[in-house]
């Protein structure tokens, strides 16, 4: 059992081949974010975060970066996430926009539930989680 029933979808996003980092980040933050917001809100999104990778040395953690950003979407329940991805506006407009800046052949995603371990600088692990 997790410590939350909410569903978090995490997408590791590589930019479309031939697109510069600056073009990718600008499009995702300034066009895609506003485009997707109303539809996400329609399906009860709790939180949508865009993590934009910053320039750093590969040696900092020992491996080169493979993704340009991470999207985190938190829904109240799995069915809300499914409904969002089936919405006609998503299928027609949002998906078309994603094709402009995302390399879909190399995107990685997973949906799951959070188990809090540390919150606000304090250990909050609930003990047995059921996993």
TrEMBL record:
InterPro entries: Dimeric_a/b-barrel (IPR011008), EthD_dom (IPR009799)
Residue ranges annotated for the EthD domain, each copy included: 16-104
A Pfam family hit: EthD
GO molecular function: oxidoreductase activity
Family classification: Belongs to the tpcK family.
Protein name listed in UniProt: EthD domain-containing protein
């Amino acid at each position: 059992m997790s410590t939350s029933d909410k569903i978090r979808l995490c997408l590791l996003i590589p930019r479309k081949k031939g697109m510069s980092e600056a073009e990718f980040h600008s499009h995702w933050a300034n066009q895609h974010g506003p485009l997707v917001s109303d539809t996400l809100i329609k399906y009860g999104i709790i939180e949508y975060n865009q993590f934009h990778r910053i320039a750093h040395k590969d040696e900092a953690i020992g491996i080169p970066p493979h993704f340009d950003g991470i999207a985190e979407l938190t829904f109240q329940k799995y069915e809300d996430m499914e409904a969002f991805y089936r919405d006609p506006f998503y299928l027609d407009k949002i998906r078309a926009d994603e094709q402009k800046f995302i390399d879909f052949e190399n995107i990685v995603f997973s949906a799951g539930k959070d188990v809090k371990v540390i919150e606000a600088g304090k250990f909050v692990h609930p003990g047995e989680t059921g996993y």
